[in-house]
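Q: What would this chain look like folded?
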Amino acid sequence: MMNSVNIIGNLGSDPEIKTFDSGKRVARFSVAINTYSKKDDAEPVWVTCEAWNEAVDRLQKCNVLEGTQIAVTGMLALNSYTRTVGSQSFKQKKLYVKVLSFQVLGAPKSEEPAEDAADDAPMSEEAAEGSPKSEEPAEGAAELPRVGRARKRA
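A: My prediction, written as structure tokens:
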């Protein structure tokens, strides 16, 4: 079985970063994922995420803050803990996404765009379509057999 999660959404708050005595670091944050329905009463789905060590450094380097649009790839994980209310203890489990990688898709709406936003500039038609196509294979490239639809036999 495969345990893989891909989500795109906006951070609900700044990541909470904690450093342990061992030197390991964790960042916890929640991502709001928009849901769509025919009615206008759709509520976002909130997903808790945890990033560790190098991913925490990248979160800080990319200045990921509340409202940042982010794509997260990770795996589902379960956190078990005991909660005490009065004299009673309850065992609880919380499902979260353990972040394996992420990509910042957009800055928070309240921030002004960066001056050198060359990455956000529209691409030319040639760049959008890719390099010009040629019927001839590039020099030194092996020619691949053509694959087509199977023909029905009569």
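The radius of gyration is 23 Å.
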